[in-house]
């Protein structure tokens, strides 16, 4: 009972900061929509989506590996310090290589992402901010593993949007150049990383001398980390693809106008999973500890309790979107009401997805990442195929239908995996 109270307290803390981050994120999107129009919202959406998708390659799955290993060795300060610096070193190398590729290919990328060569400077900015965004991800996952819930939630949900909004408000007074949208995101990523690192140094004591001992590359250790992290990389990549590939594909088939509308709709629909996400963030270290101590009998009661807490809240949010969705979209401008039908369908899909989160966290923290990878492969392939078929004909409505069906496939396969991989082995 004590564990459940602790989880609930930390979940409420995480949820509160996620709500704050969500409000600031919407204020940022609202600000961009009002001053730069639906096309500006499209630039914002594409930039953030590209950062998220590419960051998976930059992290190479090491963030989930870091979370599991640090959570399981939280009391061994020297060891977690060693793991931290090791992951920082390798992710910096991976992300720098990807950043260089973006710089070299900045001209075609500006056309592919933003439809115009004049946004080549935005691609340059994005390539710089990308490195710091990856390192920021490592830092807040490190804080999450050690149960620094407040700091983790701030840097994961709040800081990037907050600093971006403040900077963009300043830049817009100078000139309404769309490049300022990406510039704000880039500077925000840099400042957020620096602040998160200073907090880690202050609160946890990260031994800097270890870093100097890691300056030389160990190919053997790199191979070992890649071997452990690759399943996490693929699973995380596919999970993000499930949420954001439709935005990228709309930008490819349609204009920034429709990309902007869909980005806003997708962001709103994700509110439904907030209670589940907040709970999962706290349950992840708990599941890692259960796996290490082999206390599998505790799993069913935790799952039942987690669903009892989160699902009614998720359903309440879904109903409110169905009833008031058109009024919510009107806040962003009249053009955005075109996305009401997509909002209803996407929100229903996210409600289905909210059941998946706890099971996915359990599988990843219980060394079943390869099983979850197979699930994500099938679900993501379904999503991409349906997007290719439906977006050209039905625009953003087609994208939302594709997401709903793929989330349903994801849920059914996840339930099956839990029964075969966790439940049966617990009963043996």
TrEMBL record:
Q: Does the keyword Electron transport apply?
A: no
Q: What is the lineage of its organism?
A: Bacteria, Pseudomonadati, Aquificota, Aquificia, Aquificales
One Pfam annotation reads Polysacc_synt
UniProt keyword list? Cell membrane, Membrane, Transmembrane, Transmembrane helix
* Primary location: membrane
Q: Could you tell me which InterPro entries the record lists for this protein?
A: Poly_Biosynth_Transport (IPR050833), Polysacc_synth (IPR002797)
Q: What kind of membrane protein is this, topologically? A: Multi-pass membrane protein
Ranges in coiled-coil conformation: none
**GO annotations of cellular component type:** plasma membrane
Q: What is this protein called?
A: Putative polysaccharide biosynthesis protein
Reply yes or no: does the keyword Transmembrane apply: yes
Positions of transmembrane segments: 12-32, 38-61, 82-104, 119-138, 150-174, 180-200, 225-245, 260-284, 305-324, 344-364, 371-390, 396-415
Give the location in the cell.
Cell membrane
């Amino acid at each position: 009972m004590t564990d459940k109270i602790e989880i609930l307290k930390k979940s409420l803390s995480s949820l509160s900061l996620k709500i704050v981050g969500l409000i600031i994120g919407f204020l940022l999107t609202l600000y961009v929509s009002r001053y730069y129009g639906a096309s500006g919202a499209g630039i914002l959406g594409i930039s953030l989506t590209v950062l998220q998708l590419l960051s998976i390659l930059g992290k190479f799955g090491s963030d989930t590996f870091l979370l599991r290993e640090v959570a399981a060795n939280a009391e061994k300060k020297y060891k977690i310090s060693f793991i931290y610096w090791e992951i920082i070193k390798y992710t910096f190398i991976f992300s720098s290589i990807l950043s260089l590729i973006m710089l070299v290919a900045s001209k075609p990328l500006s056309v592919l992402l933003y439809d115009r060569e004049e946004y080549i400077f935005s691609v340059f900015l994005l390539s710089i901010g990308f490195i710091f965004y990856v390192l920021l991800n490592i830092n807040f996952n490190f804080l999450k593993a050690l149960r620094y819930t407040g700091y983790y939630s701030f840097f994961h949900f709040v800081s990037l949007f907050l600093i971006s909004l403040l900077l963009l408000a300043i830049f817009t007074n100078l000139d309404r150049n769309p490049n300022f949208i990406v510039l704000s995101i880039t500077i925000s990523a840099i400042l957020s990383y620096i602040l998160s690192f200073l907090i880690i140094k202050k609160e946890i004591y990260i031994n800097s001398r270890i870093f100097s001992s890691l300056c030389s590359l160990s190919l053997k250790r790199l191979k070992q980390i890649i071997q452990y992290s690759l399943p996490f990389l693929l699973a995380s990549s596919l999970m993000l693809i499930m949420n954001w590939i439709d935005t990228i594909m709309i930008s490819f088939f349609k204009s920034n106008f429709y990309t902007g509308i869909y980005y806003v709709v997708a962001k709103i629909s994700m509110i439904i999973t907030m209670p589940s996400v907040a709970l999962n963030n706290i349950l992840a270290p708990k599941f890692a500890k259960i796996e290490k101590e082999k206390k599998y009998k505790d799993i069913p009661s935790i799952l039942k309790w987690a669903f009892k807490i989160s699902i009614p809240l998720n359903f309440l949010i879904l109903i409110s979107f169905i009833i008031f969705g058109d009024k919510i979209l009107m806040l962003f401008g009249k053009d955005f009401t075109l996305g009401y039908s997509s909002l209803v369908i996407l929100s229903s899909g996210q409600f289905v997805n909210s059941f998946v989160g706890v099971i996915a966290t359990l599988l990843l923290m219980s060394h079943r990442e390869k099983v979850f990878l197979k699930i994500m492969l099938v679900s993501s392939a379904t999503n991409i195929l349906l997007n290719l078929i439906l977006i050209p004909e039905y625009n953003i409505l087609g994208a939302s239908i594709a997401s709903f069906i793929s989330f349903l496939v994801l849920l059914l396969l996840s339930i099956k995996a839990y029964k075969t991989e966790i439940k049966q082995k617990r009963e043996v």
